[in-house]
Amino acid sequence: MKNYSIILLYVVLSSCASTRKHNEQRATDVAPEKLKEDIDYAYTKLQEMHPQLYWYISKPELDHKIDSLKQTINEPLTPLQFYFKLQPVIADIREGHLALRIPRKKFTKKEAKALEHKKAMFGRFEYYIEENRLYIIENKDSIQNIKPGTEIVAINNVPVSEYIKKYRRLISSDGYNTTFQSYFLKDVFFNFYTAEKGFTDDATIETLYNNEKHTYTLTREAKSKNDLEKDKELEKRTPEKKVNDYVAFSNSYNRNFKFLDKDSTTAYVKVKSFSKDYSDEFYKDTFAKIKEAKSSYLIIDIRNNYGGSLYEINKLYSYLASEPFILIKPSQVTSRVTPLKTNYFRTSSPLEYALKSFTYPTYFFAQAFSTYKKDGKIFYKMKADKPTSPNKNAFHGKVFVLINGGSFSASSIITAKLKNDKRAILVGEETGGANDGTVAGFYSYQKLPNSRIKLPIGLLLVQPNISFSNDKRGVLPDVTVTQTMQDIIDKKDPQLEWVQNEIAREKENTVK
């Protein structure tokens, strides 16, 4: 016990020292020549490991942007200031998964605990972004009776439009689709804001509603005893929460299933994230119920689904296929050693590091023999690029898929496959992820040597097994139906309504 206490004390002290060192470094200016070294380092690593760097931008164009950026750096900058200069160039590569990690302040355990005992300040609202304007569309706790549809015009006397213009340049989708940015920016706007401004205990917002201006002071309120008890209750993992992949932070499920009519003709499955967790159980239970009900129609809703597991979308497709299928094409990497650059010990605690040290040889050999060469290119072995048989409870009726600009990554992979195979009718908006694939899979987490900013680089070129469109766009819907901000406020869903009306029309024609 004595030795254990000494080790524990050492871990705590090391953690505190690491946090202090990180925050000091984050606030320290870095010389211009050192920042230029970081730019060169980032570009070199991208050229070395990214398997499709010049997919949406030519090498001469990217070279020019890199050189132009270096010419603008002629004075010392903090890592945060440097981030706001380099990230827009990274975003111009137009690979949605490729982005620097914003250098945030780290919190000690005591500070983190104190924040856990306070309510969010900006996180108690839901937002909508249209052009350079930010709106509140849901006031979860009825804070100061702020109405949905209220525009936030300024925060602490700074126009919100300035922040949106600044932050929009930090975000890229895959290729040249037109829908992703506003969906993603509404979710990450205050991540950027708090990285810049810190976690303050209050903020003044100027608003506009029905042409009337108001000023409110938001505060970071302390949680009551009931609030803390409720948090603990929400975090408990019941069997239902596991299968439907419950997320305590949002008090919602990643997966939902229900029938939309009394006779169970139409089944509805919503997936907010392809997390993989308990996905086998969810799809097994869901499609067994659909088969038992003899449903004729299935609506799959993957709007605002930023992607996730290839395993899960391959599993889902097996419940929609009538014959063996291959989900993705072989995944290309830049070299045979690329899979060994995945930072096996990243984010490990001292205990985890010790345990991983024992398993590292197994990991090393598995990765070392995970590639193969074909037609002069190197590919990574993946289960999803092998034939998969349809599940015995596969659905053979008509499938509709709801998509929008928030459908990204794995959501776009499965959507493109369904469209190519003519297995579903896509309704909604162009997806945020590309029709022809993306670069992700797993990552090498590089750290720029002087600013210490992290740069995760996707190592796999992941493409659906389809005939490519080559238009450098998202997956285009078969039927375009948009949803306005007022629709969301009024809880209207014109995209789902279109599908339900189409099903009703088909039923009526069948009866005739």
Automatic annotation (TrEMBL):
SUPFAM superfamilies: ClpP/crotonase
UniProt cross-references to InterPro entries, sorted A to Z: ClpP/crotonase-like_dom_sf, Tail-specific_protease
Recorded GO MF terms: endopeptidase activity; serine-type peptidase activity
Pfam families registered for this protein in UniProt: Peptidase_S41
Name used for this protein in its record: Peptidase S41
Ranges for domain Tail specific protease: 211-482
UniProt source species: Chryseobacterium soli
PANTHER family: CARBOXY-TERMINAL PROCESSING PROTEASE CTPA (PTHR32060:SF30), TAIL-SPECIFIC PROTEASE (PTHR32060)
GO cellular component, one term: outer membrane-bounded periplasmic space
Domain of life of the source: Bacteria
Gene Ontology BP terms: proteolysis; signal transduction
SMART domains the record matches: TSPc (SM00245)
